[in-house]
Amino acid sequence: MMDAQTISVAGDPRGYAETDQIRDEMAKLTHPARPDVDWRRVEQCCQALFSKNGVDLRTAVFYAVARGHRAGLAGLHEGLSIIDVLVCGHWMQMWPQQTHTRMELLSWLTGSVLQRLRALTLSYADLPLIYRTEACVARLCNALELLELKQLSRLEQIQSWLQQAAATLEQTDASKGITQEAAPERAPCVVDTVSARGIVKKAPPVILPQTRKARAPTKKSMTDAGRAGDAAAPAPNRRAGFMAGFICALLLAAATGAAVWWLARPAPAQALFDNVALLPVVNGSADAQRFQKSLTPKALENAREDWLMALNKKLTFLAGLPALWRQTQGDALLSQADALWPDTPAVATLRARERQRRESLALPAAALENWNLAQQRLARLTERLNALDERRGRWLTGSELKTAVFDIRQALDKTPPLEELLRQLAVQQAQGESAVALRKQIDDRFEQLLNRYALLTEKAPAQPRDLSEQ
Question: Low complexity compositional bias: what residue ranges (predicted)?
């Protein structure tokens, strides 16, 4: 059993072999031959993914259904508890990220859980577990209602079924069970429960929520009705039947298309949060080793062409990003916050904090003047040397020349150009040195220049100072 309170959120699980095994078992549900699903294997594969990759929504849904088939209501409660923690506490981080895919998974979960619940025969002793399961589903419904996704998930159907089951069981005696009457479309199913010692016990049957029971017709009424029907039945109209079937098919196709469009459209609240979702982080070598271990050589070979095409598109996209992409994205999000919640102190605080962060990381404004200062001092020295040719008898002493050269070099050494840092890096690499400190200095300089560039684009550039007198 897995502790729902200590889960770790996972990324994409499709790189693991267990995912393929789960997909193969789930495909049996729609196979024409209807082979039996190995729910024990599905459960074990889900647990393996939880330990290797963490918990994602799709694996958690399959795990909940598998536990429901193997452990009944207790298993369903365990699986739904994991989904509850995942949805309520990690909605922004959990995989998959697409909202319509999440809703398709939860909708499929609802249908599978309801099918399993209707096959169970519960007793009065199951009331506490029903209460806990209903509370878990209620938390899920409340969380999805805040995101305007409750109707798409259909989870309220599970909640309603559990509430009706609890109300029915509350009316029974604790020491007696009442048999659930078989519905016309399916026969009752008795589920064995396993105690802590491994002893299989038969749970007493109980009446679960169902439709009103129809009274069985008598032989005489059936005979009379048959005669009356034979006498009054008109000749079948085949054209009308064909047109009715054709119209029904059109309506069904239209309803299916509308449902697909509705599921694919992003919810307004979720679209709002998509703008501030974290960007995925790629760890190249570690991810490659993980994929090599989890995928077969044949699977890697089959995915090579499509993956390289997708990589080419992403590299083209990254190459087209402007230098200030990070800063402009941050400014756009802050402007969006100002438009959505004007005059909000929290938004003003975020904007001031971002401005302060850029100021602290940017190249100091005084450092922008050092190279220009050195050039101006060189120009002054050149003018003085040229003036000596015009005024004979006037000489520049060695001390004055040394002082002028020292001032020039001091201005240049304060802020060496980025080109000079790159030249020094090339020299150290040619000599076989590690150059760790120099690399850090170059990275910091790039970051400082970009932040100073971003600050200068926000306002009109100030007039340069006249440094001729310095």
Answer: 224-233
